[in-house]
Design brief:
alpha+beta, 5-stranded antiparallel β-sheet, 6-stranded mixed β-sheet, 460 residues, globular
Length: 460
């Protein structure tokens, strides 16, 4: 990448509010003229990152440069960028013309130039002949167009858009997505867009930055993000997915749902645990078993407008989501197959919990901020620092938090075909991963119980 093509460079940026780290060592660059989207769930840090770029917040550490110059300490109004907010922030006592012209008048731009520029942007946002209208008489979509016009009339080098379509109804949002894409092409300036809507990000963006819990999960084109997710969070968050535990048998051969499949992935090694992603539209389903790789029973079939969405229980007891233009009768036996190119293999982030701890006695250990009973281990003494390994399926989750040494809230749930893979966060911020057949909801408070025989203890 030529450095002259980069307009914004973010290096090692972190930001906390009190004890909560909202952004953790963010590194990315934005190219000139690019439409880049920060995408993630609520609380992931995407709006905070946008506000750091805008100058409404200061980073705790790291640098943000624009065209090679550090913009730390430069107030928002002196930065060559403008922000469009979700709530528009129009002045109700001014008409459309004066709302758009406001910034130009503050900068003492000549009146004839103001008029020319205002009329030009009104045409650009398809609001010709609206200059004398009261902004309160406009629809939500029209008000959003005026907010965008007010931002671009100042000719910023970068336009920041903070969930600008969130307040619109579905049809208007779809229409505005098309208009935003066209505006970006006409203007040729850099757009930095924030949204939690995956479809919106895939539709609008040249580049998507997926964030979760203050960290970048993946950066790529919409096609890369959808077809080649780098971890289970991205695979689950972007569109519908079947995410399954698997084993990479050898190059281009993977096992999952109790069957072996040819794939296109290689370089994982042999007999290595992996995660496998298969999109619902990439599983071919048919009434006959001849030519099928595996079979199953249709458990549900729902019409979704364009396609039917079916749940099928495979011959090995795994549930798969399948999308097809044809409906298959509930209770019928069907054959299925998946092409090698449609199987995405991902490295597992980890295969078991490993907690750092300290032995408080020969058979007790402090982990997760509290004390657990543990097995006596040869060579391990009181006060030794240790690592405690616990398999995901050996973590017991209890309804009553008082029945366990520690508790936490369910922060992430991933269905893996035959079980749920959960992330539980304790009040101290420890992360515990658990596999369970029980159904939990996000933000449920659960007790975390680990039996001594399910711990493997080694010196740190």
């Amino acid at each position: 990448m030529n450095r002259d093509d980069i307009i914004i460079n973010i290096e090692h940026v972190s930001k906390s509010f009190g004890d909560k780290k909202v952004l953790d060592d963010i590194n990315l660059y934005v190219k000139k003229g690019e439409f880049i989207t920060f995408l993630g769930p609520s609380g992931c840090g995407k709006t905070t990152l946008l506000r750091l770029i805008a100058g409404f917040l200061d980073a705790d550490s790291g640098t943000i440069t624009m065209e090679g110059k550090d913009i730390d300490g430069i107030p928002p109004y002196m930065r060559p960028l403008n922000t469009v907010f979700q709530r528009y922030a129009l002045f109700p006592h001014l008409d459309v013309y004066d709302n758009i012209a406001f910034g130009l008048k503050l900068n003492n731009v000549p009146e004839d130039e103001i008029e020319a520029r205002v009329m030009k942007v009104l045409k650009l946002v398809s609001m010709n002949d609206y200059e004398d209208r009261d902004v309160n008489s406009l629809s939500g979509g029209q008000q959003q167009r005026i907010a965008i016009a007010r931002a671009i009339v100042n000719r910023p080098k970068v336009l920041l858009l903070d969930e600008p379509l969130a307040a619109l109804d579905l049809k208007m949002r779809k229409d505005m997505q098309i208009e935003l894409k066209e505006m970006h092409k006409k203007l040729g300036i850099t757009f930095i867009y924030v949204t939690h809507d995956q479809e919106e990000a895939l539709t609008l963006s040249d580049t998507i930055v997926v964030l979760n819990e203050g960290r970048i999960q993946q950066i790529g084109t919409p096609t890369d993000i959808y077809n080649e997710p780098q971890n289970e969070f991205v695979a689950d968050f972007i569109g519908e997915s079947n995410i399954l535990n698997g084993t990479m048998i050898a190059d281009k051969k993977v096992s999952f749902i109790g069957h072996e499949f040819e794939c296109v992935d290689e370089g994982f090694g042999e007999n290595v645990p992996v995660d496998v992603v298969v999109r619902p539209e990439d599983i071919y389903i048919m009434n006959q078993l001849k030519g099928a790789q595996f079979s199953g029973e249709v458990k549900s079939c729902i019409f979704k407008g364009v396609h039917y969405e079916m749940t099928v229980e495979t011959d090995n007891g795994f549930e798969l989501m399948i999308q097809d233009y044809n409906a298959f009768e509930v209770g019928s036996t069907v054959g299925m197959f998946v092409k090698p190119v449609d199987i995405q293999v991902m490295k597992k982030a980890c295969t078991a919990n490993v907690f750092k701890g300290v032995m408080t006695s020969l058979n007790t250990v402090e982990i997760l901020g509290c004390e657990y009973e543990c097995p006596e281990t040869p060579g391990i003494s009181k006060d030794d620092e240790v690592n405690v390994e616990v398999d995901f399926d050996k973590v017991d989750l209890l309804d009553n938090k008082d029945d366990a040494p520690q508790f936490g809230n369910v922060s992430f749930i991933l269905y893996k075909g035959d079980r749920y893979h959960l992330t539980i966060v304790t009040p101290e911020g420890y992360h515990v991963l658990a596999d369970t057949h029980d159904v939990w909801d996000k933000n449920d408070i659960v007790g975390i119980k680990i039996l001594p025989q399910d711990m493997k203890i080694t010196k740190a």
